[in-house]
Amino acid sequence: MFQEKEYKDLRMLTVSQAAKFLGVGKPIVYQLIDFNEIRAVRERGAVLVEKESLETFRASGKLT
Question: Which of 7, 17, 9, 63 is CA-nearest to residue 40?
Fold first, then answer.
């Protein structure tokens, strides 16, 4: 189960971390990025997801 305190101080999460945060698989996270539901950047070959956009998306209830 996801532990909120694991990511408390992080502003950017990997796709794997974002998937765990939302309780979905990595393909769903990539779809959410493609559909501009969450914000992400590519840095040194890695996709990093903005935690604030994940929190906003999760609070919106769109995932249920």
Answer: 17
Q: What is the pLDDT of residues 5-64, one digit of tens each?
A: 555 557 999 999 999 999 999 999 999 999 999 999 998 899 999 999 999 999 999 987
Instruction: Report the C-alpha gap between 7 and 23 in whole angstroms.
Output: 14
Q: How far is CA 56 from CA 5, 16, 52, 63, in A?
A: 17, 18, 6, 11
Q: Which CATH number fits domain 9-60: 3.30.70, 3.30.160, 3.90.105, 3.40.1350?
A: 3.90.105
Spans of all domains in the chain: 9-60
The upper half-sphere exposure of residue 61, i.e. CA atoms within 13 Å in the direction of its Cβ, equals 0
